[in-house]
Amino acid sequence: MKTPQPDILVLGGGVIGLSCAFELRRRGHRVTVLEQGRCGGQASGAAAGMLAPFAENGEQPDPFFLLCLQSLRLYPDWQLAVKETSGLDFEYARTGSLYVVYHEADSLVLASRKRWQDAYGARSELLDAAGLRRLEPNIAPEAAGALLYPEEAHVYAPDYVQALEEACRRTGVVIRDGLGAVEVARWLDGVELRASASGETFRGDRLVVANGAWAGLTESVFGMRIPVYPIRGQICAYETPDRPVRHMVFCSQGYVVGKRNGTLVCGASEDVAGFDTTVTRKGIARLESWNGKLFPFLSGRRPFHEWAGLRPASQDGFPLLGATSRSASVVFAAGHYRNGILLSPATAQVVADAIEGRETAGLPLGAFAPDRFGD
Q1: Structure pTM?
Q2: What is the per-residue pLDDT across 227-286, written as a single tens digit (0 to 9) for each?
Q3: Choosing a second label site near 62 at 20 to 30 A (CA), which of 84, 112, 205, 309?
Q4: Which one of 3.40.50.10330, 3.40.50.1980, 2.60.40.1120, 3.30.9.10 gives the CATH number of domain 95-152+229-314?
Q5: CATH code for 7-78+157-226+316-368?
């Protein structure tokens, strides 16, 4: 006789929670998502949607880079599955990316990056100033060169998250949003969560903690350190119907990425502001200052849209991912900082494998152990 699948509660309806729910449901599990606000209402919907593990990691092939790289390579099949299941389209553009430098001496740093990253399949190309301008004619004349990563891509985050939610609903995931604060009332012997405002109780066999910047608030519940903190990320966008930027473009100050809808997204200005998502003039002015130096056509222009989201940053920069040693009933998927969109398919794979009692091949998962910070 087939063993019945456990009932799984997913705490958090952002891109990570929805991705875990979608993958678990595809594997036949019964899943309920519990969200305090609206799905994708924080870091997920506010993200620029970049899938750029090479451009955003120039240091070394650490465990976090390997996780990001695996997720990038899951994306082609993953995004197709989300589109086909949901019946909704969203932008997935393999434009490639450019990491731009302003000084000739920095080209030596790019050459060093190229050597170790190409060993992991980057297929990068080192460009001089003339080669860079052939690819991005509107780049600042001061730009001295760049490293091109042809494999990297981006998605339009709001549409992607909406499609994920619809894919979950169509496959039978129960989504309860607008609950307000949700408390973990029991987790050692079965799982019980309670919506504070209404008192409604939800019971299951297993719990996936995927509530982003709020994960740190559960420290006292689980009796272990969960150093995940909200970092306010401010982003702005310009109307550029002529689409003057062809690639995702990174520099030491931030990034610029053009979307199919004719907007140019620039980010990100980050600061510590608790759970405050207010957009500040100081934060947006910082973006306006450097993006005009990267693309002069932006100088003096005001963005038409400004917004902010809370990014869940962990103490060591690595997400908390997998089961805890305290109870097999609880699996964490939190602390993804600014990489939630990129890491959604790999995280879903790791979490579903953990629920099923197996380890995801090819990843040094010990580096992401949720209880690595101690009691």
Answers
A1: 0.94
A2: 999 999 999 999 999 999 999 999 998 999 999 999 999 988 899 989 999 999 999 999
A3: 309
A4: 3.30.9.10
A5: 3.50.50.60
